[in-house]
Amino acid sequence: MKARAVIFDIDGTLIDTFEVYHEVFNQGIARYNLGPVSRVFLSGHLSKSTGLREILQDIFPMDTDESTFDACREEIRGLFRRAEVTGVRPFPGIEELFNNLKERGMKIGIATGRMSSQEDEWERFSRFGLDRFVSAIVTSKEVPCRKPAADVIVECARRLGVPTGECIAVGDTESDIIAARRAGAMAVAVATGQDDRDRLLRAEPEIVFLSANDLIDFLETMGNRPKDVRN
What is the sign, positive or negative, of the torsion defined by CA atoms of 171, 84, 26, 144? Predict the structure, then answer.
């Protein structure tokens, strides 16, 4: 395979968000005299790309009205938006990784399971100083089906102008890997999220890395070197 693009998940892959999200999630439901939920409970849902509305449905009483779900969901989202400005950062080495990929002539795309707007995600990457490396961002809000469906990866590849078969898709959950395989991309797992190595292997990725930074050495073994794109 001669890869021309890399499509990354965000949470747990590029950015360490879980602890902050767990904290604000419990703050949000506490206002309704619920919780706290455990890390295991929340990470189990997130690894399956379960939406916030569906997670809340597992916590609230069955007769809860829709307006309560909406209010709690917006409360948690607002808390997280405020908390992540100072409490969330990319994993070490991500800027160097992105720069290395650009030097190899590879396009970088983002395909996230988040239901945020594209504008919010561009703002986030701008805040981290990473937006200059990224060519396309697709959120689950923009496609019919969330991961493990292939939609968000297929759409990201389309915007990059690269066939999915020439894309590497990197993620930290079973859902990410299944989505990548369904899209026809090379599925690469990273053990920086909530799913351990054994669980990731069950989804049958091409390879499992300790972090996204290991992708650089992997590309070298594939023969995709910076000098190749300069000649």
Answer: negative
Are residues 55 and 35 in contact, defined by beta-carbon separation less than 8 angstroms?
A: no
Alpha helix positions (H), 149-192: 151-160, 174-183
pLDDT one-digit tens code per residue, 127-160: 999 999 999 999 999 999 999 999 999 999 999 9
Strand partners for 107: 5
The separation between CA 98 and the C-alpha centre of its own chain, rounded to angstroms, equals 15
Chain segment 176-221, per-residue pLDDT in tens: 999 999 999 999 999 999 888 898 999 999 999 999 999 999 998 8
| CA proximity to 184, closest of 162, 202, 159, 200 | 162
- Tell me the C-alpha distance between 207 and 214, whole Å: 11
Residue type at 203? Answer: A
